[in-house]
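Something for you to look into today, if you have time. Could you write out one complete protein record for me, on any chain you like? Leave the record below and I will have a look.
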Amino acid sequence: MKRYLLAIVLLLPFILQAKVAVEKPRSKQPTAFAIVVDQATYDKTAPQIHAYRDVLEADGLSTYILRDNWQTPEQVREQLIALMRKTAKRSPLEGVVFVGDIPIAMVRNAQHLTTAFKMDEDNFPMIQSSVPSDRYYDCPDLQFELIARDTTDRLLSYFNLACDSPQRLDPAFYSGRIRYPEQLGGDKYEGIARYLEKVVAERGKVDQLDNLVTYAGDGYNSDCLVCWMDERVAIDENFPLTDTRKAGNLRQLNFRMDDYMKYRVFDELVRPEVDAMFFNEHGSPDKQHVGSYTTEPDSFDGQYSQLKAEVMIALYMERRKGDKADVEGTKQYFKEKYHLTDAFFETKKTEADDDTKAKGDQTIVSLEDLETLAAQPRFVMLNACYNGSFHKPGYITGYYIFGPGRTVATQGNTVNVLQDRWTYELVGLLSHGVRVGQYNRLIASLEGHIIGDPAFRFQPVEPNTLATDMTTRKGDAAYWRSLLASPWADVQSLALRMLTDAGAISAGELLEFMKQSPLATTRMECLKLIGRFGDEEIFAQAIIRGLKDRYELLRRNAATYAWQSSRLELLPALADTYVNDSESKRVAYIVMKGLELFPEKEVEQALRTAVEASPYADSEAKFTELWEEVAGEQAMKERQRNQLFNGKTLKSRISAIRSMRNNTYHELVPELLKLVADASQPLELRANTAECLGWFAHTPRRAEIIDACRQAAADKNLEKELRDELTQTAIRLESTVSVPTR
């Protein structure tokens, strides 16, 4: 709170000058909420805005309306900080929603706050290499530096995360966006008015979350069936009502189930009883990638349609090349490949051709599809890249909420997202009356956003006050400890999270809880929380335990933590997992990549020991097979090292150090620190190396890196570019851990 008060003092002159209209709440509730709307949208939708305000207040939120002709993100941020300070004691601000044309912060120099985004900010246009993020608003402790205003879109402003800012996301409140996608056509104000009317209507119909559909798309999580199978473990723990009523209350779809899964997806989306639908797939701003052309249809007609689609799309793409197109050459290629005749390429307008064209698009759900689709789930999770790109004129999550159906809230990402993120972390809280925005705040990333009403919630499995307590009893350790006895997995997980945030539980206690818990998702929460402490010994014990857990996602995340740590005592368990858990494709992939980061001789010995302890008839042959795979990864380490230190061009050397952000070679830390300190090396290379060291979040050499960065940054004669990177890296690594306690 002291940081927020300081921010208020600095911003006070600007706040006093602002002419923002503030409509105060009509009732006093335990917590507060704010509707931030531009004046033009307010003028066109005032009755709907007020009706929305009224249902929020009826649901326990004192609701403010802030309206203005907002010009910059700074203006909005100033007002929210002021409101947060004003409401802190009597009715703390728990959430906000941005309605209409609210300025958008395009954030740079903060890729470590995303799950996967690592686009080169120096060599790609700012519009592509920046992250549209409302963390600019809901994380008021972060400090930003304005770079520029966009010259073509007045809503966009570009900011760097300041190097001396906190380097960790800790939203003070949750947020959501209600922005009409202009590509949808029609009057945007009428569209927003209709959406708000839908929200008000659905608020009167809300029931429990007892009907859920999930979908696994092609190519996601390595198409691992063990991963998909274990999804049921999380669902049963997180959504108890789907397991206690009729069978149709839970449907788990997989892209393999039909030649044209797109239409199965549509069937589920329009089923009236579906409360929520979770997509795990690849995506882009205007597409959900739900299917695969590699799926082999069973029937002749299906195979013919698929082949026709493949060929016609290839010809279409060739024609788009204009003067350089070789359509006849492309036809000849397919004739020879599939033994086709000229008749195959005739384009007669028939019903069959229309069917082929439709099925040719079976791999995607497009904006055009969603424009008329009456989607019924009130909440849709889109665990996919770019589906939440609300700065675009057309974006998937926007089409869901502004479509003709009942969807009022979606969760999507503005840039790409990590496949191995814990997709269902704490999502079970939706079964217990927690608001979708509160859930999203707990799993904050720079790219993850709620599009729609962030205050929406389902009726709880049993009466509780969790939604309010998360704000008003945040530091009440006794209360959260009492919830550790809850029968519900994510209520226990929330309690552990709140205790950790409050500094009221130790790493040792979390490890004991992990050992004793029969709940897979709660054990996973324990592992993640232990990683926030500085006790590397306990963390290593938790990782080893996680690698042997029966829950695939826990094994997968333990493997990730293992390579991030690379402590030698982890190597036997990691090698054993590689030898004996090959059917878990994603786990095996992460382990193989992780073994690259350990010293080669130790890896070879650990792998040999693991093979000899396993029931293989020919252990030497098995070892040779596995070692060839691992040795290839080890060779990559040496190639990267040579390129970094002996590369012929600066570009190749920078490319090598940038790749080490994904491959943290702990053995090389002393050499990397020497490179940073070597004034004879190019400044750009030294700065990139300093930035790379910030990705060594769990390395045993963390203290060594922090000390070296702090000492070097203390030199006032050091170039500002390098000093800033050193400062940011030190803060990043310092914020990785909490106070180490047993």
Q: What stands out?
A: Residues 1-17, 349-360, 738-742 have pLDDT under 50 and may be disordered. The chain has 30 helices and 18 strands. The first strand starts at residue 21 and ends at 23. Residues 662 and 680 are 27 Å apart (CA to CA).
